[in-house]
Amino acid sequence: MKKTTTNLTPPEGEPVTRLPTFPRPDNEELLAFALRVWSYKQGEIVSLMVHFGDRLGLYRALVDAGPMTAAELATATGLHERWVLEWLRGQAAAGLLEYSDGDYFKLSPSGAAVLADEEGSLMFAAGAFGPPFEPDVIDALAEAFRSGVGLPYDRLGPNAVHRTERMLGPWARLALVARIIPALKGVGPKLEAGARVADVGCGAGVTLLAMAIAYPGSEFYGFDLSEHAILRARQRMSEAGVTNVTLHQLRAEDLPAEPPFDLVITFDCIHDMTHPAGAIAAIRRALADDGTWLVKDIRSSPRFVDNLANPVLAMLYGFSVATCMSSSLSEPGGAGLGTLGFHPQIAEEMSRAVGFTRFQIHDFDDFANLYYEVRP
Q1: End-to-end CA distance of the chain
Q2: Phi first, then psi: what are they for 267, rounded to 5°?
Q3: Do 340 and 298 touch, CB atoms closer than 8 A?
Q4: Is the pTM of this model over 0.70?
Q5: Closest Cα to residue 328, out of 302, 297, 304?
């Protein structure tokens, strides 16, 4: 294939600037590649539309309503018909709504479970869709590519806490007490009798609240470095009226060792930490000799090629750059594990390195995560 190079003749005394040389692609290959790129831009825009559907109650109004026109949906939601029509047609084009002639639209049972049923569906996902990052955050992330230093979690603002809260909510409400805790050896009876529990990286307190309600005789302690997260967690506990939860803004490495905890949980946070080894060592010191450390982290494998079967792998790497790896590199010497970095092999190695001797993997059919039951 012939390549051409264009040379510019600069004024006398200035260096010659050579423009890049671009090969000429096959036309069909070019069109296919361009479509792939534009499909990601489409995904960005559809993501914003999903956020509007969730935020404005459009999906909830469509549940069990049968086919609806834009006028009917606008009346049900108190919104403007012309805007609703454009949103409906876009959602139909994205394959998220069923439609008839572009005038009647319907949310399927699967659509309702994923987009509307926040309280009753483990597959609810609409809460993960929020407004884009602020421009200054985008600028800071771009600069991180040059400096190597990422952004601490709080730099992303309160919206990041709210989005994470809604992503974790379904599994905490519907599976933690009903499925996960009963699978852990001896943990359920301890909680029923009255135990001391630490949630390290507790975020907005989703898991704490679920356990505090289910086990009123136990004492729960939430620890998180994020000021935004602790403020939101305190709000949640106050609204729910629970009295057996105490919250602390604290680094995981500074987890108090006395009195010991019967159960420590870390959900979706070890891979975000700048010093995960220090955090794991602190958990071991703080855990009773007959205690349990329950870990939830992203389902992944050590080798990139083994992760390619994951249909949302590109999204996970994007999350890593924007949040997880960025957070884990936000301090000098940060580990930089990133979203897929705390896979079972590294989790077991790091656990055994600080004195844990038993490591069991649980698969609860959570398509995004694995769970590790770790003991001294």
Answers
A1: 63
A2: -110, 115
A3: yes
A4: yes
A5: 297
Q: Are 118 and 169 within 8 A, CB to CB?
A: yes
Q: Name the strand (E) or helix (H) holding 144.
A: helix 135-147
* Angstrom distance (rounded) from CA 351 to CA 342: 11
Beta strands (DSSP E) in 85-141 are: 98-100, 104-106
Six-digit token pair at 26? 């096959």
Q: What is the pLDDT of residue 4?
A: 44
CB 279 within 8 A of CB 252: yes
Residue for token digits 């329950």?
A: 294
DSSP per residue over 353-372, as a string?
Answer: HTT--EEEEE--S-TTEEEE
- Torsion angle of C-alpha atoms 347, 302, 341, 121, degrees rounded to 10: -90
* 272 touches 324 (CB < 8 A): yes
Model confidence over 253-294: pLDDT tens digits?
Answer: 999 999 999 999 999 999 999 999 999 999 999 999 999 999
Of 200, 201, 221, whose CA–CA distance to 153 is shortest?
201
- Residue whose entry in the numeric block shows the structure tokens 């421009």: 135
Strand order in the sheet with 287-298: 245-249, 219-224, 196-200, 261-267, 287-298, 369-375, 358-362
**Residue 92 to residue 342: CA distance in whole angstroms:** 38
What is the Cα–Cα distance from 225 to 221, expressed in whole angstroms? 14
- What is the C-alpha separation between 7 and 137, in angstroms, rounded? 39
3-state secondary structure (DSSP) of residue 96: coil
Instruction: Dump pLDDT digits (tens) for 122-155.
Output: 999 999 998 888 899 999 999 999 999 999 999 9
